[in-house]
Specification:
eight-stranded mixed beta sheet, 8 strands, about 20% helix
Length: about 150
């Protein structure tokens, strides 16, 4: 009886860890695009979230265009260069920020289209973001940064 309870507790613990790793992820910052908010080498906890839950001003982690979603969520950490961290400047349905995003000055329409985001690095001089490449698609979203991991 005690053995069966121990097995159930162990299985429950494993399932809880698997669920947490699917919901949360730890990434390491590389590059200077988010200075002074986040520095190279800092580790961040992010929560996977659907695009409909995003708010302007949140910091998000996305897969870089041209790369598929990494295997990192299964292991819980990622340090690869295929992830980008940026601040959400405009969401689907928001006015296109033509004044601050040169790549979108000639974009058709007046609103950010469904399935697209405008994202900017805090350090404009060191960030390749929507100012250069225009919209990023919401299917690239991995999650929202919750906090830094204490060293």
């Amino acid at each position: 009886m005690i053995g069966a309870i121990a097995v159930l507790v162990a299985v429950g613990g494993v399932l809880a860890v698997v669920r947490l790793r699917r919901r949360y992820m730890v990434v390491t910052v590389h590059g200077e695009s988010m200075l002074p908010t986040y520095r190279p080498g800092e580790r961040l906890v992010l929560r996977r979230t659907p695009p409909r839950s995003l708010r302007t001003g949140q910091v998000v982690v996305l897969t870089e265009p041209g790369h598929s979603e990494p295997d990192a969520p299964l292991s819980g950490t990622s340090t690869g260069p295929y992830l980008i961290i940026k601040r959400v400047a405009a969401l689907p349905g928001d006015p296109i920020p033509r004044d601050t995003v040169p790549a979108l000055r000639t974009a058709p329409g007046t609103r950010v289209p469904d399935g697209h985001l405008v994202v900017l690095g805090d350090n404009a001089d060191r960030s390749h973001d929507s100012r250069h490449s225009g919209y990023l698609t919401t299917d690239r979203l991995l999650g929202v940064v919750l906090r830094k991991v204490a060293r």
